[in-house]
Amino acid sequence: MEVKIGIQSVPRELVVETNTSADELERSLSDALESGEHAVFALSVTKGGKVLVPADKIAYVEFGASGAHRVGFG
User: What percentage of the chain's residues is helix, strand, coil (to nearest 5)?
Assistant: First the structure.
């Protein structure tokens, strides 16, 4: 699934592919936001590794089913 993370004061969004379910993502984000000022939202990436984002700097998280990647200018 494709996950887009908007970070405060950063002009571009972070886009990653993950195999984590939507329910797990939502639970993990909620836990990170409730944990306090220095909490980190951790997201496992499909190709290996993790992405760590300071939870208090997250503006939005958008996730849904992966669609076919667009090619071209349309």
Answer: 20, 35, 40
pTM: 0.79
Give the position of tokens 């494709």: 2
Which residue's entry shows tokens 């998280």?
61
Mean pLDDT of 22-40: 90
Q: Interior CA angle at 63 toward 59 and 67, to 5°?
A: 135
Per the document, the length of the chain is 74
Cβ 6 vs Cβ 70: under 8 Å: no
Residue type at position 49: G
d(CA 29, CA 55) in angstroms, rounded, equals 8
For residue 25, which amino acid is it? L
pLDDT of residue 37: 80
